[in-house]
Write a structure and sequence with these properties.
Strands 3-4-5-6-7-8-9-10 form an eight-stranded antiparallel β-barrel. Strands 1-2 form a two-stranded antiparallel ribbon. The chain has one domain. It contains two helices and ten strands. Strand 1 and strand 2 form a beta hairpin. The protein is globular, with a radius of gyration of 23 Å. The relative contact order is 0.16. The protein has 167 residues and is mainly beta.
Length: 167
C-alpha cells in the first residue's frame, strides 16, 4: 500500500495541473499582437517593426520577396523601397492598355490598389480609402523618389526612397 501512495499522489497532481502542451503564441497570435492582420503574413515581414515616416502617421510593413506573387505572375513591374526595405510593388498591365495593380501593407492590412500607368517617373494608385503616389525627386539622382500615402490617417510621406522599374 505504501508503494502505491506516491504513484497515486503523482497521478492526482498531474490530473489537476491541466498542463498545456504549448504556452507560446501561434504565428497568427503573434501577428495579431504585433499589429499585423492575419491576412498579410504571406506578403509582409511579420516580425519586422512597422515602417514609420518622419511625417504623418500611417504605418507600412516591409514586404517579403514573395509579395509580388500576390499580384499574380508577371514580368517587369516597379518597386518602392524606403530605408532599404521594399514597401510597395506594382504589377504592369497584363494586357496592352490594361490596368496596373500595386500591393502594400498599411496598418497591418494587405491592400491591392488599382492604377492606370506606372513609369520610371512614378505612379498613382487609388482605392480602399487610400491614394498612394510615387514621385521621382527633382534633379539628376536616378531612382530617388518619395511615396505619399493619403487615407484615413491623413497624409504620410516616406522620403527619400528608391523607385525602380524593370522591363
Amino acid at each position: 500500500m505504501r508503494a502505491l501512495l506516491p504513484i497515486l499522489a503523482m497521478s492526482l497532481l498531474a490530473a489537476c495541473s491541466g498542463s498545456k502542451e504549448s504556452e507560446g503564441d501561434s504565428a497568427a497570435d503573434y501577428a495579431q499582437r504585433a499589429g499585423f492582420a492575419t491576412a498579410s503574413p504571406a506578403v509582409a515581414e511579420v516580425n519586422a517593426q512597422p515602417i514609420v515616416a518622419p511625417t504623418g502617421s500611417a504605418k507600412l510593413a516591409a514586404l517579403t520577396a514573395e509579395a509580388p506573387k500576390a499580384l499574380g505572375q508577371y514580368k517587369g513591374g516597379c518597386t518602392f523601397a524606403y530605408q532599404g526595405r521594399q514597401i510597395l510593388v506594382v504589377r504592369p498591365p497584363v494586357k496592352a492598355g490594361g490596368d496596373i495593380e500595386g500591393l502594400l501593407v498599411i496598418e497591418g492590412q494587405q491592400i491591392i490598389l488599382p492604377g492606370s500607368e506606372a513609369a520610371d517617373g512614378g505612379v498613382t494608385l487609388a482605392g480602399a480609402g487610400y491614394t498612394v503616389s510615387v514621385s521621382r525627386a527633382a534633379g539628376n539622382e536616378r531612382g530617388v523618389a518619395g511615396l505619399k500615402v493619403s487615407g484615413p490617417q491623413g497624409d504620410t510621406i516616406f522620403t527619400p526612397g528608391t523607385w525602380s522599374c524593370a522591363a
